[in-house]
Amino acid sequence: MVTIEKGNLDMYQNNLTILNELIKTQQNSFKQFIAYTICILIVGFSILIISQTIISGSTARTIAASGGTFITSLSGFSLKEFFNKKGNIKTYNTLRLNIEINKDNEKEQQDIKSLLQTIIIKNL
Fold first, then answer.
1. Which of 36, 85, 99, 120 is a plausible cystine mate for 30, CB 3.0–4.6 Å?
2. How far apart (Å, rounded) are the C-alpha atoms in residues 106 and 38?
C-alpha cells in the first residue's frame, strides 16, 4: 500500500480543485454561447416571420432586413472559439486523469501545478 504524504495530498487536492473549476468555467461559457446564439436566431426569425405575415410593403422589407441583420450578427462570433471550448474541456479531462494517475507523485503534481498556473495566466 502506498502512503501519500500530507503535503503531496494537499497539492493533489488543490490541483484537482483548480482543474475542476477550469472545466466548469469552460462548460458554462460553452452553454452561454449556445444560449446567446439561439436567442439571436429566435429574434431574427421572429422578426422575419412577423414582417412577412402582418406587415406588407416597404415597411416589411425594412423589418425583414432588420431580422436578417440579427441573424447575420452571428457571423461576428468566432466558431473557432466555440470549438476551442469543447477542445479545452477534453484536454482538461485528460489532465484530470493525469492528476489522478499521479496522485502520489510529488514531482508530477508540482509540474501539473505549474501547468495549471500557466493556463490560468493565459486565460486572464
1. 85
2. 46
